[in-house]
Amino acid sequence: MPIAPAPTPWAFPPHSTWDPDDDLVALGADLEPGTLVTAYGLGLFPMPVTLDAEEHLGWFSPVERGVLPLDGLRVSRSLRRSVRDFEIRVDTAFDEVMAACGSPDRPDGWITGEFRQAYGRLHRLGWAHSVEAWRDGRLAGGLYGVAVGGLFAGESMFHRERDASKVALVALVDLLRDEHADRRVLDVQWQTPHLASLGVVRRPRAEYLESLRRCVDLPPPAAFRLDD
């Protein structure tokens, strides 16, 4: 099981105070493991945000949350064929996956060195994970995210070969389909047109938080447990 981090010294605003029309909930705090684990359990995730020409650490909970129902993933015929072309590995190249997701060549990049270090620490404690698509001994694509109980909060994905990131997503959904699948939550933050084409739907914040409340006490999937 994940190693419990030191408690965070920060207190996040209670749900009742969140602005119902604003995705941004709070500013400040830090990226220490205890802060991150606490935040994800509350339905928050961090991203840099610029306000009044100054950069801050922002904590977000989208008013309309992007969620991929485990029985709603759309796998096209061509993607189904691609699945057979890759080898799936879990947590064998976490740092490389994060580096690829945070490449400065990507548009709208936000994964700074500070974020890479923070999630690397979280990974070593057993909370952050990568699902990787390999071919011919080469990392072709993958994704990473944070697992807190029955929540998997997907953070980012990348590909170096066609369909490789989608294949990693298919593998992730398979990993989450265990005896607790009906309560697990696969969160992708916001719905984009690309993610919508894969089956991602929008859930109102209150509905998302209720599903989170029901799933955080679950054990993580077997593939993400340190003792496995």
UniProtKB/TrEMBL annotation:
Primary enzyme class: transferase
Alphabetical list of Pfam families matching this protein: Leu_Phe_trans
Subcellular location: Cytoplasm
GO molecular-function term, one example from the UniProt record: leucyl-tRNA--protein transferase activity
First-listed, main subcellular location of the protein, grouped into a coarse class: cytoplasm
Catalytic function, reaction form: N-terminal L-lysyl-[protein] + L-leucyl-tRNA(Leu) = N-terminal L-leucyl-L-lysyl-[protein] + tRNA(Leu) + H(+); L-phenylalanyl-tRNA(Phe) + an N-terminal L-alpha-aminoacyl-[protein] = an N-terminal L-phenylalanyl-L-alpha-aminoacyl-[protein] + tRNA(Phe); N-terminal L-arginyl-[protein] + L-leucyl-tRNA(Leu) = N-terminal L-leucyl-L-arginyl-[protein] + tRNA(Leu) + H(+)
Keyword Secreted in annotation: no
GO-annotated biological processes: protein catabolic process
Keywords of the record: Acyltransferase, Cytoplasm, Transferase
GO cellular component terms attached to this protein's record: cytoplasm
SUPFAM superfamilies reported in the protein's UniProt record: Acyl-CoA N-acyltransferases (Nat)
Annotated EC: 2.3.2.6
InterPro entries hit by this protein: Acyl_CoA_acyltransferase, Leu/Phe-tRNA_Trfase, Leu/Phe-tRNA_Trfase_C, Leu/Phe-tRNA_Trfase_N
Entry-linked PANTHER family: LEUCYL/PHENYLALANYL-TRNA--PROTEIN TRANSFERASE, LEUCYL_PHENYLALANYL-TRNA--PROTEIN TRANSFERASE
Function, as annotated: Functions in the N-end rule pathway of protein degradation where it conjugates Leu, Phe and, less efficiently, Met from aminoacyl-tRNAs to the N-termini of proteins containing an N-terminal arginine or lysine.
Annotated family: Belongs to the L/F-transferase family.
Protein's name according to its UniProt entry: Leucyl/phenylalanyl-tRNA--protein transferase
Record gene name: aat
